[in-house]
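debug: dumping io for the single-chain case to check the tokenizer round-trip. Nothing else runs in this session.
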Amino acid sequence: MVKGLLYFIAGIFVIVVAGSVVLENVPSLQPMWKEFQEIASNVYSDAKAKYGITGAVLLIVGVVIMIGTSASGKH
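debug: decoded output
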């Protein structure tokens, strides 16, 4: 359990660092990133208004788990 949590935290750290490097080296991606942030914020706000904070967070976690465990593309 603890090992899995540490892997999860390390994975998030690697994604954040890699994203920072990519956005620094490819400045043309910054407007697209800002647009993605705005869309994600609007989706979260709409979900929070409809389902409440707990429901919105559970919905987001469920979608992430569903995408992460999908079998498409795995051979």
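debug: round-trip ok. Residues 11 and 17 are 10 Å apart (CA to CA).
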